[in-house]
Design a protein that fits this description.
Its main location: mitochondrion. By secondary structure, this protein is mostly helical. The protein has 3 helices and no strands. The longest helix is centred in the C-terminal third of the chain and has 28 residues.
Length: 67
């Protein structure tokens, strides 16, 4: 038994995962085990970035006060 044997002698779980994904009625992007976490985190970061961009643009449009 070589040192790298555990890396390439693993059981094949493709059929189990294929059945899981194909039999799941959810949308494709919600079918994975942690997809709600990933989509939620992405959405929060995206919304934060858009709000920061909107704040920056409005600050540039308003400009500095002339006092």
């Amino acid at each position: 038994m070589g040192v790298l044997t555990p890396l390439y002698e693993k059981p094949n779980h493709v059929l189990e995962k294929q059945r899981f994904y194909q039999n799941n009625p959810n949308a494709l992007y919600f079918r994975g085990p942690r997809q709600r976490l990933y989509i939620g985190t992405y959405s929060i970061l995206f919304a934060g970035g858009m709000l920061a961009t909107l704040f920056g643009v409005t600050s540039l449009v308003k400009g500095k006060s002339s006092e």
